[in-house]
């Protein structure tokens, strides 16, 4: 525990090393991480939280890089939590991306952090929420969370961000179907990236059609066409994000939005933790034994579930 006060002080002073250290500590989901979060929480809540989501390959990272440049030109500082395991923030990117990112890495006003997929251990959603809190407390004006889209990870960006941007590219008909079917939460801003590709106009028209099926009161998500590779449309995107923010503030719904996100976050993180407890408690042998009993008719399925719940409820170490 010895480092916690020093790390907290460093984060509050905006020291990059301390910020990196704090995120590593919260990532390990241990007591130190808890202590960091507890100490930093009263200092968080000032950042604008922006979510960027979309399927792999649509250009999120390229777009994030371009957006960072625009925000920096406005004089704002940015913290980024990238949850996409395939992001060029971590993998060997094509040269152009690497040059752009190097530019940001050298910039003291930008902090980029990738969250490792935690695999079987779970806890990615919790670690991501904590990392956002650390960057917020460190004083970054904007905290951007980049995730692969809609149901593809355990991290629901809508719980963390006040403005959610969904990035699509021409030909991504699945996303439109998902929106129409109500399977996908409708974002605050829609981006058709790779607008240089054929089908961008059609995509836009289809999106308009899908949005036309909803009766909007208040904010209607705008559709912005971008070419992230050459920065075209990024100014429009930044403006759309700023308009959404202004809408939240002017209509007094920012607090409600935060409350709603937090309520969903608390519930889903609790479910996550409980799920991990069930997994820990079960072990393969226990389930197999129950399956045998159910199949042989000695036990009914509902009673088998009772046994699972009872076992998960038992405090660790009590057998
Ligand atoms: P991510 O997986 O969503 O983060 O996507 P990336 O940012 O890694 O981009 C995937 C590929 O699409 C890369 O090769 C980019 O250079 C390319 N790309 C990104 N934006 C555009 C664009 O506006 N037009 C075209 N043609 N390619 C783009």
Written account of the structure:
With 319 residues, this protein is α/β, with parallel strands linked by helices. The chain is built from eleven helices and seven strands. Strand 5, helix 7 and strand 6 form a beta-alpha-beta unit. The protein has helices spanning 4-12, 16-27, 31-40, 60-73, 95-105, 124-137, 173-180, 200-212, 234-250, 254-295, 301-313; strands at 48-54, 78-82, 110-114, 142-148, 163-168, 189-192, 223-225. Helix content is 51%, strand content 12%. The model is unreliable at 86-99 (pLDDT under 50). It has a seven-stranded parallel beta sheet, with helices on both faces. The longest helix has 42 residues, at 254-295. The structure holds guanosine-5'-diphosphate (GDP).
What's the shape? globular
Question: Structural class, from secondary structure content?
Answer: alpha/beta
The Rg value, from CA coordinates, equals: 22 Å
DSSP strand count: 7
Report the average pLDDT across residues: 86
Secondary-structure element order, N to C: HHHEHEHEHEEHEHEHHH
Keyphrases for this structure?
globular, 7 strands, alpha/beta, binds guanosine-5'-diphosphate, 319 residues, single chain
């Amino acid at each position: 525990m010895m480092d916690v006060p020093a790390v907290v002080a460093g984060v509050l002073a905006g020291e990059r090393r301390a910020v990196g250290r704090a995120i590593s500590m919260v990532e390990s989901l241990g007591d130190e991480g808890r202590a960091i979060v507890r100490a930093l929480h009263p200092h968080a809540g000032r950042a604008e939280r922006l979510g960027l989501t979309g399927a792999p390959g649509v250009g999120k990272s390229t777009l994030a890089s371009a957006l960072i440049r625009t925000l920096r030109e406005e004089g704002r500082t940015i913290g980024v939590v990238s949850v996409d395991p395939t992001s060029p923030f971590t993998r060997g990117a094509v040269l152009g991306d690497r040059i752009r990112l190097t530019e940001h890495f050298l910039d003291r006003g930008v902090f980029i952090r990738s969250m490792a997929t935690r695999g079987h251990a779970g806890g990615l959603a919790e670690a991501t929420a904590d990392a956002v809190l650390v960057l917020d407390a460190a004083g970054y004006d904007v905290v951007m969370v980049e995730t692969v889209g809609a149901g593809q990870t355990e991290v629901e960006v809508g719980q963390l961000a006040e403005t959610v941007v969904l990035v699509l590219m021409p030909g991504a008909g699945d996303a439109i179907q998902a929106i129409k079917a109500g399977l996908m939460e409708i974002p605050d801003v829609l981006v058709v990236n790779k607008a240089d590709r054929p089908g961008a106009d059609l995509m836009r028209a289809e999106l308009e059609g899908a949005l036309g099926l909803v009766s909007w009161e208040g904010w209607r998500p705008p559709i912005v066409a971008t070419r992230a590779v050459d920065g075209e449309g990024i100014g429009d995107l930044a403006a759309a994000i700023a308009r959404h923010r202004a809408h939240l503030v002017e209509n007094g719904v920012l607090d409600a939005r935060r409350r709603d996100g937090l309520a969903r976050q608390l519930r889903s993180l609790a479910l996550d933790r409980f799920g991990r407890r069930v997994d820990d408690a079960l072990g393969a042998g226990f389930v197999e034994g129950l399956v045998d009993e159910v199949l042989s008719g000695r036990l009914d399925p509902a009673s088998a579930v009772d046994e699972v719940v009872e076992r998960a409820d038992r405090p660790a170490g009590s057998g």
